[in-house]
């Protein structure tokens, strides 16, 4: 019933879950096998090795059968103690949700925020992090947590700059990064950027259904986990890592999603990571050109951190972004992302991630353009034509 659309296919352009390619769907449909049997061990060993390539990681990747929120929690409970202070940066709605989670599990959170929407229209301010760490001579701050690609705003922050800020402050806090919506679409370097725990998820750039999430763990984070006392059982790294040594999992893995993951990694590596990132950059550039042509504003104000994954479009006060989205969904069978938190009703978000190409983006832009006109807003010029000029 759910995919019983009147005709043609549904255009899923929310910033995740993203469309799942047929190749991945087929892999997911293979028979579920014995997760303790010999075939599984060989499959698991290969998968756990090749997934490191996506994170550009020399360190192990833990795979949870959970959504991204689970992996957020896992990163914190494995490395920290009750009452520890974590420094977080308010880059948008997901940064705020991670902070709320940290508070709920008994951490003391410090949030670097800017007034109003200011912090939501640019990247993480590494200088502000450096200054705060320099004023912590007793090293009470145990972790710095930032979001790489803020899905709510369409901003991809410079994680290498955050690492450099921490080094400049000579501060030993762990660096934890959420790249739930960045991985597989925007360049990410777990080892090269000196990240201690990378958190990610399956349903965005990896082109999988929701249901898997990841922690990639540096040696320093692993060492912290040996003494960390926040309560944990299901999320505990030690038992999982031990089982992973032989390609198995501590609990029943999401076998069929792992088949899909293996296939998706092959697809991404087959296209080439650099080619995948360049494709996303080009689609994002075309999308922004369309927004400009319509006479609307991209939420992100700093071109150096425009997201290759998602573009948030600010609408004038005369438009209720959610009513516009509803109209577009009903009329053109196109799903766009809603405005989250402070942005409710103010933006709609166009996802251009994962299994997306020129024509799928152009179709989405066309739906937006017709929807804007149907809503009563006359676009200044054709965004579709502006995007075509970039994509030709
Ligand atoms: N972090 C970011 C950047 C996200 O985009 C999301 C989900 O969209 C989450 C965290 C939460 O992940 P999940 O909804 O899979 O639990």
TrEMBL record:
The modification N6-(pyridoxal phosphate)lysine is found at residue 204. Residues 34-339 form the Aminotransferase class V domain. GO terms for biological process: glycine biosynthetic process, by transamination of glyoxylate. GO terms for molecular function: alanine-glyoxylate transaminase activity; L-serine-pyruvate transaminase activity. Belongs to the class-V pyridoxal-phosphate-dependent aminotransferase family. Substrate binds at residue 349. It comes from Polynucleobacter kasalickyi. Pfam families: Aminotran_5. It comes from the Bacteria. This is Alanine-glyoxylate transaminase / serine-glyoxylate transaminase / serine-pyruvate transaminase. Its cofactor is pyridoxal 5'-phosphate. Keywords: Pyridoxal phosphate, Pyruvate.
């Amino acid at each position: 019933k759910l995919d019983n659309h009147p005709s043609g296919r549904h255009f899923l352009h929310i910033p995740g879950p993203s469309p799942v390619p047929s190749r991945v769907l087929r892999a997911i449909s293979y028979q579920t096998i014995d997760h303790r049997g010999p075939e599984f061990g060989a499959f698991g060993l290969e998968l756990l090795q090749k997934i490191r390539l996506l994170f550009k990681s020399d360190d192990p990747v833990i795979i949870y059968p959970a959504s991204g929120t689970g992996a957020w929690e896992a990163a914190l409970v494995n490395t920290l103690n009750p009452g520890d202070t974590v420094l977080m940066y308010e880059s948008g709605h997901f940064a705020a949700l991670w902070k709320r989670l940290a508070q709920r599990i008994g951490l003391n959170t410090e949030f670097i925020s800017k007034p109003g929407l200011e912090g939501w229209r640019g990247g993480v301010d590494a200088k502000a992090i450096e200054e705060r760490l320099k004023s912590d001579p007793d090293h009470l701050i145990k972790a710095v947590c930032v979001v790489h690609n803020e899905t709510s705003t369409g901003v991809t922050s410079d994680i290498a700059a955050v690492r450099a800020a921490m080094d400049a402050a000579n501060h030993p806090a762990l660096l934890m990064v959420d790249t739930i919506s960045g991985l597989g679409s925007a360049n990410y370097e777990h080892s090269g950027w000196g990240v201690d725990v990378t958190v990610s998820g399956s349903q965005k750039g990896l082109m999988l259904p929701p249901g898997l999430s990841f922690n990639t763990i540096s040696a320093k984070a692993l060492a912290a986990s040996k003494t960390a006392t926040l309560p944990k059982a299901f999320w505990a790294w030690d038992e999982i890592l031990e089982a992973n040594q032989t390609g198995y999992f501590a609990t029943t893995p999401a076998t069929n999603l792992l088949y899909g993951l293996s296939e998706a990694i092959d697809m991404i590596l087959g296209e080439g990571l650099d080619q995948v990132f360049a494709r996303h950059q080009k689609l994002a550039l075309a999308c922004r050109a369309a927004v400009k042509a319509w006479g609307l504003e991209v939420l992100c104000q700093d071109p150096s951190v425009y997201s290759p994954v998602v573009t948030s479009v600010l609408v004038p006060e005369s438009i209720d972004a959610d009513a516009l989205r509803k109209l577009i969904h009903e009329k053109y069978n196109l799903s766009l992302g809603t405005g989250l938190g402070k942005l409710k009703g103010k933006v709609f978000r166009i996802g251009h991630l994962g299994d997306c190409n020129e024509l799928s983006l152009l179709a989405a832009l066309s739906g937006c353009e017709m929807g804007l006109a149907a809503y009563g807003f006359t676009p200044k010029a054709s965004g579709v034509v502006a995007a075509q000029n970039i994509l030709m």
